[in-house]
Specification:
The complex is a heterodimer of chains A (453) and B (161). Chain A is an all-alpha fold and 453 residues long. Chain A has helices at residues 15-32, 37-50, 56-62, 65-81, 86-97, 102-119, 122-139, 145-160, 167-176, 180-186, 188-205, 214-221, 225-228, 232-252, 259-274, 288-300, 304-323, 325-336, 341-358, 361-373, 386-399, 408-419, 426-452; strands at residues 276-279, 282-285. Chain B is built from seven helices and four strands. Chain B has one domain (3-156): CBS-domain (Roll). Helix content of chain B is 41%, strand content 12%. In chain B, the strands form two sheets. In chain B, strands 1-2 form a two-stranded antiparallel ribbon. Chain B has a two-stranded antiparallel ribbon with strand order 3-4. The radius of gyration of chain B is 19 Å and the shape is elongated. The chains are: A mainly alpha (453), B alpha+beta (161).
């Protein structure tokens, strides 16, 4: 928690007004999508410092390097792993397993998206699964919309189940110190139940009506999934490192190792393994020039705009927190809920659900985390806030499904759909997605009421 | 040396309303890879290349930005590709051509045209700056041919000894 501001804001402006004005402008620009979000966040962060809301030292201390390292580490691992062709392999293999039946394919691709989103991150998952989905649906002469829609929901719900699956969870986990298994045990079950309900719904709505010719199915059945695996050795290296990293997430927490450290350690190991190649059965190491080229290429896989977006956001939120406004808002909320833990938790769940549908859930969660922190004294200490954190995780992750701009994964799918000439309009998506998101929030609320409180 | 001196003026052109099949036949007849597309007023509106035809035969999942990198797992796709070509042949070239094309003006230096060819491929259309009317084409052969003419001239003047 950041100490309240002792800085002198320029022209004697009230720090609350200055910080809220900056945060408000940042939100407006993020929502309007007029400027790149990383640029907006960095401008907002600079404004917090130059206006005098926080000092440089406070700003640097406000950046959560555990989150930053976790994001960079996982981006590097996935960036190297994707060159093995494993994502195409899994999708084609699954399509053949269901005998190229579009109805089953709808379900199986959603499951693959959910599982990959839980183990990797949901943005990268959709980036890799959407192109192969477009190819398979084109082959089967199916409208790709139901597939893309279901994958958006699957990525957000699947990502809810783990610490690394969805950016809000990374933020919450890093701030509170929850382990990988804490997430699996606490938000995994409601994510699983919700996913089952969604699959049944998607099958009822679209799947059961899907028909295709035997000829189209026969074409797809001729696909060779093993040909998609272009670099088996890289796949083995990547799976080994991924398993090691997941193991590190599970056991490292008890030994004081943060997920960011584990992810970055795994990324370094995979980069090292990647410079060892095999030619005609002989193992050799890349020349120093090629090593540099290889490492440079790996660093290009990191989405630096996302990393700087997070860094800027951390500084902005530090500024807002230091002004004391979030503590005041927390007090007001506790007055409304009369200090009742479940009423506060359910309120947080629904507020984060609705808010995350309209604004990117990352800045929202980053802002609300210090507000929840400020509630600790009312509930007898930070350790008693645990149910509220899970409620926030479920609300923010599920809420991201409410509109096409609700989560980064949605924006990514929409952009791919646009590139493929199948645009997903804001309203068309929302008419179906918003009520469905409310239904998932109801499931989450019921689960939260009976299990967390 | 300007592009005006290096350009070819006898050029095979296509009209936006011609069908892909007709233009493919034209390309085949004259052993060309690309033709400039001009409207009835002689204004350059795009270019139609065999490469663009091939691009249209690929699935959208491959041709879109950040799409699939490989198709080696697709077995027995030839009949499907042939069907795509058959369907494509009946389309008008205005629906298939590249509208964005790099151009030079008659007074542009040939070096700039050579740079464009190295970067974006040949031929590079030469158009009137004000009207956009097609004046000619600069190709690898026409640029090198013009350089050879200059070498001959320099040899005659004894400047290459």
């Amino acid at each position: 928690m950041v100490e309240h501001s002792v800085q002198h804001v320029i022209f004697g402006i009230d720090p609350v007004i200055a910080s809220c004005a900056v945060l408000g402008l940042v939100y407006v620009f993020i929502i309007s999508e007029r400027l790149n979000q990383a640029l907006i966040a960095l401008l907002g962060a600079s404004a917090m410092i130059f206006l005098g809301v926080i000092s440089q030292q406070q700003a640097f201390a406000g950046i959560d390097f555990n989150t930053i390292f976790l994001l960079i580490g996982m981006m590097i691992i996935v960036g190297i792993m994707k060159h093995s062709g494993v994502f195409q392999f899994v999708a084609i293999f699954a399509a053949k397993m269901v005998k190229a039946n579009p109805r089953s394919l709808l379900v199986v691709l959603a499951i693959i998206t959910a599982v990959f989103s839980a183990l990797l991150d949901n943005v990268t998952t959709v980036m890799l699964i959407v192109p192969i989905t477009l190819l398979l649906t084109e082959q089967l002469k199916q409208n790709p919309y139901p597939f893309l829609f279901s994958q958006i929901f699957a990525s957000n719900v699947g990502g809810t189940a783990t610490l690394i699956g969805d950016p809000p969870n990374i933020l919450i986990g890093s701030h509170v110190g929850f382990s990988f298994m804490d997430f699996v045990v606490n938000v995994g079950p409601p994510a699983f139940i919700t996913m089952i309900c969604l699959l049944i719904f998607f099958d009822f709505l679209w799947g059961r009506k899907m028909k295709t010719s035997m000829k189209a199915r026969a074409h797809l059945l001729r696909y060779d999934p093993f040909a998609a695996l272009v670099d088996k050795e890289l796949l083995y290296k990547s799976l080994f490192v991924l398993a090691l990293v997941l193991f590190g997430f599970i056991v490292g927490h008890g030994h004081g190792y943060e997920p960011g450290t584990v992810a970055l350690g795994g990324a370094s190991l995979l980069m090292l393994l990647d410079i060892f190649k095999r030619k005609r059965g002989k193992l050799y190491i890349l020349s120093s020039k090629k090593q540099t080229h290889s490492v440079e290429n790996v660093f290009k896989e990191v989405e630096w705009d996302t990393i700087f977006f997070f860094m800027g956001l951390f500084i902005i939120v530090t500024g807002v927190e230091s002004s004391g406004i979030l503590a005041v808002m927390a007090e007001r909320m506790l007055e409304l809920t009369e200090g009742n833990l479940w009423a506060t938790g359910i309120s947080i769940l629904w507020i984060s659900t609705i808010a995350s549908a309209f604004i990117n859930n990352i800045p929202f969660v980053a802002t609300i985390i210090p507000m929840i922190d400020a509630m600790a004294p009312t509930f007898g200490g930070k350790e008693n806030l645990e149910p509220i954190w899970w409620a926030l995780s479920l609300g923010a992750c599920f809420g991201g499904n409410g509109s096409i701009v609700g989560a980064s994964a949605n924006v990514m799918v929409a952009s791919y759909a646009m590139r493929a000439g199948q645009p997903i309009s804001f309203m068309k998506f929302m008419i179906m997605a918003f009520p469905l998101m409310l239904a998932t929030a109801v499931i989450a609320s019921i689960y939260a009421y009976f299990v967390y409180f | 040396m300007s592009c005006e001196t290096a350009m070819i003026t006898k050029i095979i052109k296509a009209h936006p309303d011609e069908t892909v099949e007709d233009v493919l036949n034209k390309l085949d007849e004259y052993s060309l890879r690309c033709v400039p597309v001009v409207d009835s007023k002689g204004i350059l509106v795009g270019r139609f290349c065999l490469e663009k035809v091939l691009e249209n035969l690929l699935p959208i999942a491959v041709t879109m930005p950040d799409g699939l990198q490989r198709l080696n797992f697709v077995v027995g796709a030839s009949p499907g590709i042939a069907k795509r070509l058959h369907k494509l042949k009946s389309k008008k070239i205005k629906d298939v051509m590249s509208e964005e094309t790099h151009v030079v003006y008659p007074n542009t230096e040939t070096w700039e045209a050579i740079r464009l060819m190295v970067q974006y491929g040949s031929p590079i259309p030469v158009v009137e700056k004000k009207t956009g009317a097609l004046r000619g084409l600069i190709s690898e052969q026409s640029a090198i041919g013009e350089m050879n003419n200059i070498i001959k001239k320099l040899e005659e003047e004894g400047e290459l000894t």
